[in-house]
Design a protein that fits this description.
Number of strands: 8
Number of domains: 2
Oligomer: single chain
Strand content: 25-35%
Largest sheet: 8 strands, mixed
Number of helices: 2
Distance between the termini: 82 Å
Helix content: 10-25%
Strand order of the largest sheet: 7-1-4-3-2-6-5-8
Low-confidence stretches: none
Radius of gyration: 22 Å
Shape: elongated
C-alpha cells in the first residue's frame, strides 16, 4: 500500500512537470495555440531585408502585433501581412518602418502613428512605408568614397 502511494506521487509530480515544461515552451516560443486575436493589416515594402514571419510589430517600443506572412506581390514588392491587437487603432497616415534591434539583431516593424482622424479598417493597408537600411551597401559606399 505504501509503495503505490509513492508511485502515484511520483507520477503526479512528473505529470505536473511535463505540463509546466510544455507551457513554458509555448510561452518562450511565442506560439499562440488558440489563434491570433486582432485584425490584419498589410504593407508593401520594396525590400524586407531579413524580416521574417513571426517578427514583432511595435509602437513606441511596445509590441502590438506580429508579422503573419511575407509574400511577393505582382509588382515585385514584398507584401507583409501582420496582425494587430484589437485595442490598437492605427490612423490612416501611420508609417511602417523595418528596423533592427541592436547592431546585428533581429528585424521588426516599427509603426509611427499619424495624426489623421481616419482609422485603418481591418484588412486595410498601411500606405506609408520605409524600407530597412542596408548596412552592407552603406559600408561599401563609405569604403569606396561614394558617400
Amino acid at each position: 500500500m505504501r509503495r503505490s502511494v509513492v508511485d502515484l506521487s511520483v507520477g503526479v509530480f512528473i505529470l505536473i512537470g511535463l505540463v509546466a515544461l510544455g507551457w513554458m515552451s509555448v510561452k518562450l516560443g511565442k506560439i499562440d495555440l488558440f489563434g491570433t486575436r486582432g485584425y490584419t493589416l498589410t504593407a508593401d515594402f520594396p525590400s524586407v531585408g531579413g524580416l521574417k514571419a513571426g517578427s514583432s510589430v511595435e509602437i513606441a517600443g511596445v509590441e502590438v502585433g506580429r508579422v503573419n506572412a511575407i509574400v511577393l506581390d505582382k509588382d515585385f514588392q514584398a507584401r507583409v501581412h501582420m496582425t494587430i491587437r484589437p485595442d490598437v487603432k492605427l490612423q490612416d497616415d501611420s508609417i511602417a518602418s523595418i528596423k533592427t534591434k541592436g547592431l546585428i539583431g533581429e528585424r521588426y516593424i516599427r509603426i509611427s502613428p499619424g495624426g489623421s482622424d481616419k482609422v485603418i479598417a481591418p484588412n486595410g493597408r498601411i500606405r506609408e512605408v520605409e524600407p530597412p537600411v542596408d548596412f552592407e551597401e552603406l559600408l561599401s559606399k563609405y569604403i569606396f568614397g561614394k558617400v
